[in-house]
Prior knowledge:
By secondary structure, the protein is α+β, with helices and mostly antiparallel strands. The protein folds into 2 domains: 2-49, no CATH class; 56-167, 3-Layer(bab) Sandwich (minor pseudopilin epsh fold), CATH 3.55.40.10. 31% of the residues lie in helices and 29% in strands. The longest helix is centred in the middle third of the chain and has 25 residues, at 56-80. The N and C termini lie far apart (72 Å).
Amino acid sequence: MLRRTRFLQQTGIHFAGKRLVDDEAGFTLIEIVCIVAILSIIAAILLPAIPRGTPRARIEAYALEAASLLKADRSAAMRRGIATATVIDPATRSLRSGVTGRIVRVPNDVMLDATLAARCNGSTAGNTIGFFASGMSCGGTIALTRQGVGYQVRVNWLTGGAEVVPVNAP
Length: 170
């Protein structure tokens, strides 16, 4: 038994819950607090540098929602037999349905640009895409981009159909 105890003392193995060698082991509380403080300072410096913009998938969701709103306005114009218009307001980054009043707003870091017809059906179109009872429209393109990457919602003037197309895909 004496031989075994000496071996355990030399290797530092625990015996009955106590260490048999009196070496210092582990960290003191002040060392742990210093490490936590250093890591906190590094995190405070690095976290603001991480970009927190709208991700590409969310921009696609906004584009699909805008296309859905445009398709709903076209369907309502055909169903009711009257002309209707979807209002695009780049200043407030929003689209408003001419039928239901539903509004699609995009975040501030997403650019909303619209290329619309100046005149439509003999009158000034303004910031609208008009839909007629025949299914035709004034047409136009709505671009939702962030840092040059995003989606276009294209409305065909002849068919009134809306499609979502990626721009500058990585």
